UniProtKB/TrEMBL annotation:
Family note: Belongs to the 11S seed storage protein (globulins) family.
Stated name of the protein: Cupin type-1 domain-containing protein
Location of the region described as Disordered in the Swiss-Prot/TrEMBL record: 262-284
Source organism: Erythroxylum novogranatense
Entries under Gene3D superfamilies matching the protein: Jelly Rolls
Amino acid sequence: MAKRFMLSLSFCLLVLFQGSLARRQYQQQNECQLKRINAVEPDNRVECEAGIIESWDPSNHQQFRCAGVAVVRRLMQPNGLLLPSYSNSPQLIYIVRGTGMTGMLLPGCPETFQESQQSEGQGSSRFQDQHQKIRRFREGDILAIPAGVSHWCYNDGKEPVVTVSLFDISNSDNQLDNNPRNFYLAGNPEEVFQQTQEQRERQPPLYRRGQQSSCNNIFCGMDTRFIAEAFNVDEQVARRLQGENDNRGNIVKVKGGLQVVRPPTRLQEERAESEERDRERQRRANGIEETICTMRIKENIGDPSRADIFTPEAGRISTINSHNLPVLRSIQLSAERGVLYKDALVLPHWNLNAHSIMYVIRGRARCQVVDQNGDTVFDGEVREGQVLTVPQNFAVVKRAERERFEWISFKTNDNAMAAPLAGRTSAIRAMPVEVLANAFRISIEDARRIKFGQQETTLGSSKSQPGRAAA
């Protein structure tokens, strides 16, 4: 009987994390017929007791509906706790600034973090608290959260934590609709994404925000008697679970700091993660306990030594995909972290199999995006705090003209691929010289210059700038 139960549990967990192969199921037929793309600021702002949440609402921007995504930026003050919640879609979280801890609550997995205290006069230990694994995060980390899996975050540092999150609402793991939804397990949080007039009209008056009692988590709609019976508590405590008269918002202040069983130090954690990556390379993916309860959900791509592409005069790019973070294979997302020095450019290219949603971390750059008709759908400056969507197959080029430029791009494929238009590995370089000469109506000599003129692969610079390698 026990074996049958474990087999059933293993099967359920396996199904939970088997994502689709990048089908954008909610993408509307004409949403990607874009005549104009804009670099946009957040649409909505929610102020909380211990932080601020800002969102880019897909209902307000065709470019987000084309990509099937939504974007959220959070600022958590020191001792700020983001209330536990889950979403109808998988998400990637990038840590722009700060340090802290997070817990991802996986159904059916054991509580491996345990606190024990030696009882006086006894030789046995008694457990004070036990919970699932806590993971530390720092600037440059990417966190992967599957759809429907609840998580929380806490800022235990001395500086604010800033994160930017991409919600992939077109992922087939989301079987509700193409609206981003957060389901909170506690408190009285405010809706991060603004509801459209049509959505508000469809909602029964009793449950419209502002007309309901002060309660907005998933326990609110349950009878307090059921809650009391489920948790074996009295009804007064059950009403507390419903966030009764709680006006702190989505991010709450923890007085005196959060007392939990702490994870190891950063050095120990990085060593353990390195050993885990080595084990993953040596074994075949064949089990539940190896890939679900103990799986890695984060990878740092902000460290300069982590760069996959580096040009001393131009900058660097780090990528994360399902090859170096296997959980991304399930949620069908990946990311790119880039740094571009002054007067350098990312050579023109297109994304073969993914939309790219770029958030500007620091600085500014000139960017151009071109569609299949050769029309420029974006030609302008992108600056810190803005988001720009580059649809699949649209050509893009960006250049840092006056200052250093840093960005994070979320990709809607776990193994996103880019095809350069110029450079040593480009489509132009791969063509015979005579094909180029006839295609562009130029001389053979000019065709050779076009083909072999750029020796870089991804990043280029108009002039050499010594000393950049140490930046």
